[in-house]
Amino acid sequence: MSYIQNTDSDRKEMLRVAGASSFEQLLEPVDPALRVKGGLKLGRPMSESEVLSHVGAMASRNRPAGSAASFLGGGIYDRFIPATVRYVLSRSEFYTSYTPYQAEVSQGTLQAIYEYQSMIAKLTAMDAANASMYDAATALAEAMLMACSIKRADRILVPAAMSVRVRAVLESYAAGRGIRIEEIPWTDEGTMDHDKAGELLSEKAAALVVASPNYFGMIEDAAGLSELAHSKGALLVALVDPVSLALLSPPGEYGADIAVGEGQSLGIPQNFGGPLLGFMATRSELIRKCPGRLISATTDIEGKRGYVMTLQTREQHIRREKATSNICTNEGLCALSAAVYLSTMGEDGFREVARQSAAKSHALYRLLSEVEGVVLPFGENFFQEFVVRMPGSSESFIEEARGAGILAGIPISGDYPLLGGDAILVAVTEKRTRAEIERYRDIAAGKGGAL
Amino acid sequence: MSYIQNTDSDRKEMLRVAGASSFEQLLEPVDPALRVKGGLKLGRPMSESEVLSHVGAMASRNRPAGSAASFLGGGIYDRFIPATVRYVLSRSEFYTSYTPYQAEVSQGTLQAIYEYQSMIAKLTAMDAANASMYDAATALAEAMLMACSIKRADRILVPAAMSVRVRAVLESYAAGRGIRIEEIPWTDEGTMDHDKAGELLSEKAAALVVASPNYFGMIEDAAGLSELAHSKGALLVALVDPVSLALLSPPGEYGADIAVGEGQSLGIPQNFGGPLLGFMATRSELIRKCPGRLISATTDIEGKRGYVMTLQTREQHIRREKATSNICTNEGLCALSAAVYLSTMGEDGFREVARQSAAKSHALYRLLSEVEGVVLPFGENFFQEFVVRMPGSSESFIEEARGAGILAGIPISGDYPLLGGDAILVAVTEKRTRAEIERYRDIAAGKGGAL
Amino acid sequence: MSGTIFEKGAGGISGRYIPENDFPDEKIDALAARKGEIGLPRIGEQDLIRHYVGLASKNYHIDKGMYPLGSCTMKYNPVVNEQIAGLGGFTGLHPAQDERDAQGALELMHNLESALCEITGMSAFSLQPVAGAHGELTGMMIARDYFRDRGEDRKVVIVPDSAHGTNPASVAICGFTPKTIASNEKGLIDPGILEKEIDGSTAVFMLTLPNTLGLFEREIARIVEIVHRAGALVYMDGANMNALLGIVRPGTIGIDIMHLNLHKTFATPHGGGGPGSGPVGVREHLADFLPVPRVIREEGGYSFRHVSDKTIGRVHSWYGNFNVFVKAYAYICSCGAEGLRAVSENAIINANYLMTLVSKWYDLKYPGPCMHEFVASGSNLKAYGVRTTDVAKRLLDYGLHAPTVYFPLIVEEALMIEPVETEKKETLDHFASVMEKISIEARENPQILHDAPVTAPVRRLDEAAAARCPDLCWTGPGGCGE
Amino acid sequence: MSGTIFEKGAGGISGRYIPENDFPDEKIDALAARKGEIGLPRIGEQDLIRHYVGLASKNYHIDKGMYPLGSCTMKYNPVVNEQIAGLGGFTGLHPAQDERDAQGALELMHNLESALCEITGMSAFSLQPVAGAHGELTGMMIARDYFRDRGEDRKVVIVPDSAHGTNPASVAICGFTPKTIASNEKGLIDPGILEKEIDGSTAVFMLTLPNTLGLFEREIARIVEIVHRAGALVYMDGANMNALLGIVRPGTIGIDIMHLNLHKTFATPHGGGGPGSGPVGVREHLADFLPVPRVIREEGGYSFRHVSDKTIGRVHSWYGNFNVFVKAYAYICSCGAEGLRAVSENAIINANYLMTLVSKWYDLKYPGPCMHEFVASGSNLKAYGVRTTDVAKRLLDYGLHAPTVYFPLIVEEALMIEPVETEKKETLDHFASVMEKISIEARENPQILHDAPVTAPVRRLDEAAAARCPDLCWTGPGGCGE
Ligand SMILES: Cc1ncc(COP(=O)(O)O)c(C=O)c1O
Ligand SMILES: Cc1ncc(COP(=O)(O)O)c(C=O)c1O
């Protein structure tokens, strides 16, 4: 299948006009010794129907959420996505357009992103948000660089109860810049140890990162930590789950300086982990230090409202090595998904998603707490996700559940040996049904085989 | 899930403006005795996700073509549909618009249908085609009415080797108008008996209908029959398969007066038999007698090319009971599918579809001819579909094939007792693979169980 | 880069969509009797997509704005229903498949028929007719065979002058003789006239309810009684059912046969002219005459059956527009009982509200509460040399669609306006304010209206030239006559 | 009916998308610490769809017309690839699922990596970086850890002045010190200058090939040799790989590290600003430094592995933009070896043809054959008071998109034009003819250009005001400062 439209005679004529007697002549700047000999070793071109069956067969060799009840979380969730999202995203006006460099003919994208920024700002209760980052991990890494640059410091404090993958990305970004990342352990309640945080903050740090809910699903005393950080001259960077913010106190309310998070929950399919949507919001005073694209409302020469990219002097295409970040292509279409998702669900529907996620996860928690041998180490102060240790081995539990059409959770003791035993992380979103939740309990109670 | 956007306070205000103190007051013309008491006995409203799972579960209780190799035909075929078709059809500019009554803001639909008409005219080699009919059966019924009106006669001749369902629709349309439909039997070759046709044509008939390929897949001597009909003063109405026309002589070449057919093959999913696409094309002289909508090119007051509905005086909304037909809503979006399909496949690709359908069906025919006990009553003069009798019972053959993931054909002896035995109609489209065709043969040869 | 796809695709190259043939067959050349090229385009996929996306941009559509076409019920088409109807489990089904492999499809049809029975109060429905007019024709066939079965020779169908054009056309196509009766000064059927016209030759009285003026026939009970007394049947064109959901069930007030337009009342999209779906419902005594096959539910599952020899037979190659059923059924599930009632309540409130606003600037021949639509008239603007068509074209310049114009024929300079329930108050206010502006323009500067539209993709088109010398098929740069 | 979604959704009602909660829980109220409303819209689905469809209509996009943005490779995005990437078997996969339940996804990633290796001649690829700049940064991290592993303290990365802005930015973000060298009068890297600047502190020489002037570095072999002799690595920004498919394999000419932009070369859509995908490839000696996990194929199937302790670690939460991989892989399958070569041939022919046409009316600083793009200049129009930005805006009035302007910085009044291979000759002819018209307008009536655009949804926008007082968040009718 070829998408080239020139015919042989077109090419002949074009070469003639370009003053070349053959295509080879146009390749004159490329030393023949450097050229590919004998063609690439790839297959022959496939027709559209062959591509569909070849790649379609790969899709069918997976077992996606739709064919099993997923209790997997850890940053990526199986949530209901209203049909409006796919409908809007399938309009080629959005998905085939470039970054809005010519504002006058890109008002659709620009306004949509402006509205996205507004929704993130409202959700986090911060003053402003940028147009998107790659994912939560890189958004946090950029927040780290931003904090270090603001505070002219090279040390940040992070919770030990944080995703090891996010932590790994932080390390990659920190390494070349000589930034030290230090960890604050968790207490018996699975939340950050305030005393230890206070201790570590006594040495100069650019920022204290608080993840709430943290990787174990637990809600932190973010307000207390914020006060602590500020009292020691550090910024507070909040790593948050956007759905939780419909219920929990948002970063702006407890004085966070930068809020970042993963927006996949906002209408973006799981897609094996990508594309994701890193969001970042901050206070007005810090906006010029913020990485990434920003869209601003303005007016045209006739006074009509319109939208433009703004503060581009922070960006790499203008400032090059002095830019606040190297980000260029971001996750624009995912930001659009989030905007469509949030406006479709609306104020009430979005709150309902949060409430149901909390209600259902707490329901499973309580059901499991009644099963003999099940250990729930951290108590009930969680939003939609919790850590559990099963009576037997978690591996065999997960395997049994898998056989019964349930993806039971992520085994996490390997990454967090301090958890001891065989812990798994279980997430319950609004999509899970009573039947699925009860079946989960039954399997945990050793009564799953009958199904 | 509600799609109503007025709030309670909107409604209150609107009632006030309309001078009504309550909604009940607006119902004043409706005698309370006639009103529904106690509400409809239907379920409570479902949320979007509930509708998706409720109706989605019904979809999964079917076993569609994608999950089995289909050799079913009889007018509806499993063909490859390029992605462009679904893409274009999913644009709401096309699918949510009304019949193009305001031409100036409907140029998209109008031009697309004009192009569809042109493609059908070219395919059939007729002068012009209408904007679509409900399906082949009703298109043929309308052609019958048209012929009877042109010839002021009330008798038409049809092949016995014609779809019984199409025939049934003809009867329904003919009954009230006193039109007699008479049948011409098939010969040993499975084609129309010319002698018998000549005989029946000696009494005045409005039209001779020739189906080529006929219901048994056989190619008729349409040119000979055309000459015969015309020599007896009858019109020739051709019922054709659009894909076959890429290979076979088109109706315009053999002098047909009206050509009709089923356009489902042109990019329209099988959809359990609907919507379909009846097409109709005719000669210039007869166009004012033609039923249905017609789009014409014209110019606007500035001389710019544009498109309008034309010859509307034939239509019911102007001519009421004197209209050539009662058709109003037709199959506009299916006509668009056909246009996108034909322009995507293009001259060469569309011919290739026809060639492969023929090649593959003839290949299966030959493979079956080598299997002992298989009877192929009508020979090789078919396009993509043929009649076969299996050694055992066709019911058990079809059942065995079904178990092996093959939809083996339509049993037709019930509808055509003269075929004798246990005949099935087998269609092979371009989508069938060598492996599927060979597996079909293996099952016929009693070697299917191994798979 | 405008032009037809034929011009854009002249001499180009198409993509490759199907695999190479692995069954080369010389015999095929023997079949290949067609001479020369078909004349289809050869165009690359990028330009093809641009062509159709370009055409799309020239269309008005529901997702752009209000579509106040009276009698057309242009409501929002939920995107989720398109998604559901596009599931492979539906789209990939062959109609001749083993019923065991189509149980979900049969169940859906069965459920939809039951829901339509409940909504309308009819005893049985056939989903086979694929459009409103097709439903009318089917209904006429049922009446025809009903009287034939009873040995009665009735050939006349009485139709009010306010009826939709398809009504008399369907009557005629079926072989009946239509007889028109005039509506009275209130826009309603006059039972007195009906009583005079009806006799033993009358097979059917065919009415639209609410009628095409948007009015409910106040005398419907008496009308039904008159018709039944004459031994005739009452046919109701139910295309306007959007006004009656959960309010009136036609079957319980004596309607014998009716059709519904799923592509109006049940939110399935109109597709620029179809596909639609026009199921026909009947009361018990006519059930045997419905088209076959019918969907039957039994112990073992669902199946298609030829239930009675009295059937009129078939009106479609298969079972009707199944893909449309899926969307209509999903819509009914979404709404539920209370939601359907809310549809009609809001449709009626919207229409009455908009009628109040519009009637400040346009004539209204039939005041008083309307149902889901109303008919205004531009006759007051004739004094300024302005016709309804000018008002319609000017609306396009304001980015709106025009109402249905010059229909029903009994209202001079008719503007038939149906706002539907999915439009909200602000949208109606905006429409009314534009209608007001236009009425002022008509007085102050009628030329603007004559010149309209100026912002549409084309200006007014020469329909007369097209009718004189229709160019129905692209034959080259010159077009017609070549 | 314009305005933000907040205005349209003020005080309305949303649809119901999820079922009622069947786990009522009073405890949830204890968690619910958030005070007051979030401030999200409440809007019905019809108006929501209209809002976004209305926004869509204000965008230029590939399906509308040519998109000659230099360096951006705006080619046709095949619709079938969107369909494939939307299959539930891909979209519904959680990244932490059991590998046995994700074999198809892993196979696809493995196949894509292999294909990229074959296309580029590199030994190994990581798909983890999600954009070009992210790939650059990843590449820099690899270089950083490579030298750290060898115990060498190299802190400098040499970057030509023609480099894309992301290049020096990525260098700096990674903690290296960028050092700019000037290109010569032919627009190429001067090996002499490079030789002078390079030394033991140089970690990497980072170049774009073809460079941002659309030129192939004629001295590439010598450049590579110089860099390697200095013990440094050569990094190639492969965002312009659309010129080299099947023509040059960077790995075989000595490039040590490179990234590709799948969202340019491999036809995945740009999405108005992403998601992209910027895989990084390295030669054998650097393979251990690639991000983890890597996809491994073994007897029993595919799996993710942490293959080496030398790895730089992770640059993404999971495995990169998987959904983009699906489209890029489908595209590679469609093209096959010969098709990929044809892509570059046609991209180069189109660029040289268009360069010939455009250079009749605009300056060209670097004549001679270009690769897939070229840089013209509007400097000849300065005499008429016209700047390149005016030319760009005027193009919008003709329904076209503008080229990349004012980049690369080394060309005054730059117009960087990349026609891409999917555009056909007629489209280029049309673009050239409009460029010609504009150059004539510039001479005869420059005001038209200053006033442009007039046909776009808005006129020129006040960027200065936005930068002075940015309004980044809707807070009510007033906006900024409230
Ligand atoms: C009142 C009425 N009856 C009948 C019809 C005919 O329906 P269809 O166009 O589906 O054939 C329509 C719609 O056009 C209508 O509004
Ligand atoms: C030459 C070149 N390098 C790097 C980039 C950066 O890629 P991305 O925008 O995906 O980060 C681009 C595209 O913008 C580019 O054209």
Describe this structure in words.
The complex is a heterotetramer, with two copies of chain A (451 residues) and two copies of chain C (482 residues). By secondary structure, chain A is of the alpha/beta class. Chain A folds into two domains: 66-78 and 347-444, Aspartate Aminotransferase, domain 1, CATH 3.90.1150; 83-342, Aspartate Aminotransferase, domain 2. Chain A is 37% helix and 13% strand. Chain A contains 14 helices and 14 strands. Chain A has helices at 8-17, 23-26, 48-60, 83-89, 92-95, 107-124, 136-151, 164-175, 194-201, 222-231, 316-319, 332-369, 394-403, 434-444; strands at residues 69-70, 128-129, 155-159, 180-184, 207-211, 235-240, 258-262, 278-282, 295-299, 305-309, 385-389, 406-407, 410-411, 423-427. A seven-stranded mixed sheet of chain A has the order 2-8-7-6-5-3-4, sandwiched between helices. Chain A has a three-stranded antiparallel sheet with strand order 11-14-13, covered by helices on one side. In chain A, strand 3, helix 8 and strand 4 form a beta-alpha-beta unit. The longest helix of chain A has 38 residues, at 332-369. With 482 residues, chain C is of the alpha/beta class. Chain C has a seven-stranded mixed sheet, sandwiched between helices. In chain C, helix 8 links the parallel strand 2 (156-160) and strand 3 (177-181). Chains in contact: A-B, A-C, A-D, B-C, B-D, C-D. Chains B and C meet through helix 1, helix 2, helix 3, helix 4 and helix 5 of B and helix 2, helix 3, helix 4, helix 5 and helix 6 of C. The complex binds pyridoxal-5'-phosphate (2 copies). The site of one pyridoxal-5'-phosphate (PLP) has 13 residues of chain D, from helix 7.
